[in-house]
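Technical note accompanying the year-one report. For the benefit of new consortium partners, we illustrate the data format agreed upon in the data management plan: each record pairs a sequence with a structure-token string. No post-processing was applied to the example shown here.
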Amino acid sequence: SKTKVCPVCKTVLETKVIPQLVPQTPVIKGICNRTNGVVFNWTVVDGATSYNVYRRAEGGKWVLLATISGTRYVDSKAVSGVSYSYTVRARNAAGLSAYDPGKTIRYVAAPTNIKASNGLYGVYVAWNSVKAATSYRVYRKVLGDDTWTYLKTVKTNSFADKDVDSGVDYIYTVR
């Protein structure tokens, strides 16, 4: 509400109730696969007190995943190999905004159980296969270094690293 007060006697002259408007529609800025699930974020909406986050699997219906105060969400329940669409609605006391048009992504989980072992001709790296993965990118770094070096993209769930130095400790990761 908006109130006018007399500056001299402080008497209320007029009171108007100004209705709060439904918030603007948030816009999803980015979406990507991460180790812990599908991650996406959206624009801040002035006057929004929270955001409703929705997901729809291929051919399915929209499902409310969460109501949160922030502008970033991690869908840790996504299943590898499934395409999902996501949308967001801003909320305030007046109601919900329109839906963001949404973004779609096919979730591919990160490889797990990565193991490296010494072999006759180098280091043998293997990992569990990932549903819906068509290839894997193998990286390594020297223990203590911050920078990963891309080695190769392979279509199987193993790789033999023959370009290694004896006595050096390597760390491997696979995407």
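Partners are asked to follow this layout when depositing records. The longest strand covers residues 83-92.
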